[in-house]
Amino acid sequence: MATLLTIEELSKRFSGLAALDHISFEIREGEIVGLIGPNGAGKTTLFSIIAGSQPPTSGKIVFEGRDFTRVKPYRAVHAGIARTHQIPQPFLSMTVRENVEVGLRFGRAREGAQELIKGVMQVLELVGIAPLAELPAAALSVGDLKRLELARTLATRPRLLLCDEVCAGLTECEMQSILGLLRRIQALGTTIIYVEHNLRAILSTCHHVIVLNFGKKLAEGPPEKMQNDPAVIEAYIGKKAEAPRP
Amino acid sequence: MSAAERSPGLAARPLAVLPPLVLLGLLAALPLLNLGANSVKVLFLTFVSIAASVGWNILGGFAGQVSFGFAVFYGLGAYTTAVGINEGLNPYLTYPLAGAVAALASLLVGLPTFRLRGPYFAIATIGVSEATRVVMTNLEFTGGASGYRITEHVPFRQLEHYFTGLMLAALAVGLSIIVRRSRFGLGLRAIRDDQDAAADSGVNPFASKLAAHAIAAALTGAAGGVYARYAAFIDPEGVFGFQRGVGILLLPVIGGVNTIWGPVIGGGVYGVIEEELVARFPQVHLLLYGILVMLIILFEPGGIVGLFQRTRRFLLRRRFASWQPS
Lengths: 246, 326
What we know:
The structure holds 2 protein chains of 2 kinds.
Chain A: E1 3-14, E2 17-28, E3 32-36, H1 43-51, E4 58-63, E5 66-67, H2 73-79, E6 81-84, H3 96-106, H4 113-127, H5 142-155, E7 160-164, H6 172-187, E8 191-195, H7 199-205, E9 208-213, E10 216-221, H8 223-227, H9 230-237
Parallel strand pairs in A: 3-8, 3-9, 6-7, 7-8
Antiparallel strand pairs in A: 1-2, 1-4, 4-5, 9-10
Chain B: H1 18-29, H2 37-62, H3 71-86, H4 91-113, H5 118-137, E1 148-149, H6 158-181, H7 183-193, H8 195-200, H9 205-231, E2 233-234, H10 236-239, H11 242-255, H12 262-280, H13 285-299, H14 303-319
Helix pairs in contact in B: 2-6, 2-9, 2-11, 2-12, 3-4, 3-9, 4-9, 6-7, 6-9, 7-9, 11-12, 11-14
């Protein structure tokens, strides 16, 4: 399959601290790619840079063959890169419907009045919060806010969806339903990079896994292989103690 | 949130345009009652203030960018009209010109200041406003601190001014409604709620704020122009003064920031109260304003419109006490 996104030697320094250290990888179109790593590995920083919220210190981002290294966030959205935040950032003065309208009207497709009503309901139904459409966003529960965040992002009609820990803080049941949703979104033709702590969620959903640790790429490969990779296990759990002397 | 606050519903509500049109008609017919010259003057000044404040509200309310520097645009509009009339232009041509000059100035002000957020933006606008006043105080071409006089060789007709003010206020409200219901207006609301999330949803915050600033400045500049022709004499302290800038944002604060009708209601209240207060307490009327604004911000940040909505919600809740959302 064609390459959608190429990250070349990407680095980000915060006054001396290397949050990302020469990261390189490729994302192929149509995949769900898991991005895992312990706290502080640089996952969210990487998302911010791809989405244009922060500039990288060095390196290059190529999206659909074009240089997107220091693109503004709204330009990234117009081109089809959209992200969800770990902590949902809804427009609190608006209803659920209006939140989604912002994504639809300002996103990649810039949908006009004709498609708007249909688009809103389609997105809300996909995400499963259609009955809440007329409620103020401020009235939603954490789980529903996560769905709204996803709905507003999907409304921009992304080609590449950056999902930051959509399952954190959710119950097992809510998590399964969100994972099912990600698979449906992928089946509809959106490529997804999915940051997650929960290994089980990654294993059951992703085609390919990239492991970060201390800002470096530790390993990359199919999920089953990553699960048994000694370096990955060490990063997450620690090294096996040496066998006690007899 | 009230139905009026909700963004377009795409099916327009044709009946919603009736009350404003009736109000406009009543105000247009009001001079038939042979009001005294002073009442007409109070109404005229109220219309001018409303036009400027409705403009301010597009930036300060809809987009949430509170500026204390709108005296810059009011003053530039006033001086543009004044110079234009003295140079022999038709007064009605000078008003759009005043708006255009103010809009242009708003871009110069906005380019650096919109890189700042929240209180830092507000403080920067105070600086710009004071700097402009100082420049105008020392500009010889317009008479500096001693002011600038407009000489017209036509008889003064107060009602002509009255209708000009009314039309400008109506234009401002109309524009504000159009902005509120447009895609652009939705983007401004998103910026007000969360600028970063807005950018992550495809809104260009910087360009949107510049555009809102320009529309707001154009209305305020035109208001300054209409005022200048009526006053026939303007000076930097009067039209560029800090008090002018605060006065422009006082109406939305009283009536309800971030609503269509807040600045209009605020203007009505302010216009009437000001007459009374200045007449009765000439020394302390500003102090009384200060107290009023503090009370509003402390107890009802939504202003009069907010108070009205809260009352309505309270009554509705009692009626539907048993109803639960989904």
